[in-house]
Design a protein that fits this description.
- This protein has 10 helices and 10 strands.
- It is α/β, with parallel strands linked by helices and about 240 residues long.
- It has a single domain, classed as P-loop containing nucleotide triphosphate hydrolases (Rossmann fold).
- Strand 1 and strand 2 form a beta hairpin.
- It starts with a strand and ends with a helix.
- Bound molecules: adenosine-5'-diphosphate and magnesium ion.
- The site of magnesium ion has 4 residues, from helix 1.
């Protein structure tokens, strides 16, 4: 088993947000995590990454228990994270930001170079000596994805990577997600655009009430109007 999340609970103060999230990723697939706004998708990623300490449950990556460990330790064990907030060091250049993301990576993880990143996003190469804080939102999003990849993850958690991007850039990011997967990285993708998610994912999880309500293939979810109405579509 590559990744296994079992009965994960998390709170913000007294608010109980995750009520036992469980799912597995047997091999390096693309798994889409869908749900309405506020259903707990971002909180799931944060609790997995150690950005928020889970109050119960387990997160295992290749038999290593990660729940309750620091964000730094989790990243070093091979879980990469592209948070919804674009996280760049505004006063460092693009290239310096890329170097900040580098980790040696665990055994068996695909390896990435700065040149790989420039091949994905030529715009970043053009702007390699520019301060990251002066770049557009879309460029900062590309930079955030690249920084996480340079940590050489086994599995990458990506939170709404196409949010606010122009359609052309959405296509580029979609291709990059596919290529990352082709090169052997598992991807857990939170994505608002269901059409994009269904296009790239091998599996779909649907969250509601702080737990996984559906786990199946893109074809299964297409066939389940009841699930989509109850947990996905805005009434
Ligand atoms: N920092 C926070 N403090 C308190 N409540 C939060 C915080 N972040 C999110 N929440 C609440 O947790 C619930 C789940 O949010 P979130 O995981 O961000 O949902 P999603 O990513 O699916 O839209 C929501 O009710 C939201 O209001
Ligand atoms: Mg979110």
């Amino acid at each position: 088993m590559l990744l296994s999340v079992d009965n994960l609970h998390a709170h913000y103060g007294k608010s109980h947000i995750l009520h036992g999230v469980s799912f597995t990723m047997a091999e390096a697939d693309i798994v889409a995590l869908l749900g309405r706004n506020g259903s707990g998708r971002s909180t799931t990623l944060k609790a997995m990454m150690g950005w928020l300490e889970p109050t119960a449950g387990s997160v295992r990556l290749k038999d290593k228990e990660l729940a309750g460990r620091s964000a730094h330790a989790v990243a070093r064990q091979g879980l990469g994270y592209v948070p919804e907030e674009r996280l760049v060091f505004p006063n460092l250049t693009v290239e310096e930001n890329l170097h900040m993301g580098m980790l040696s990576g665990v055994d068996g993880a695909p390896r990435w170079s700065v040149d790989d990143m420039y091949a994905y996003f030529p715009r970043l190469r053009e702007r390699r000596n520019q301060k990251a804080g002066t770049m557009s939102g879309g460029e900062q999003q590309m930079l955030t994805i690249c920084r996480s990849l340079l940590g050489n993850p086994l599995v990458l958690l990506v939170d709404e990577p196409t949010e606010g991007l122009a359609p052309k850039i959405v296509d580029v990011v979609t291709d990059v997600v596919r290529d990352i997967h082709r090169r052997g990285v598992g991807v857990l993708l939170v994505e608002q655009k269901m059409s994009m998610a269904l296009k790239v994912a091998q599996r779909v999880l649907v969250m509601g009430h702080g737990a996984i309500q559906f786990d199946g293939s893109p074809q299964d979810i297409q066939a389940r109007g009841d699930i989509r109405r109850e947990w996905l579509e805005v009434a």
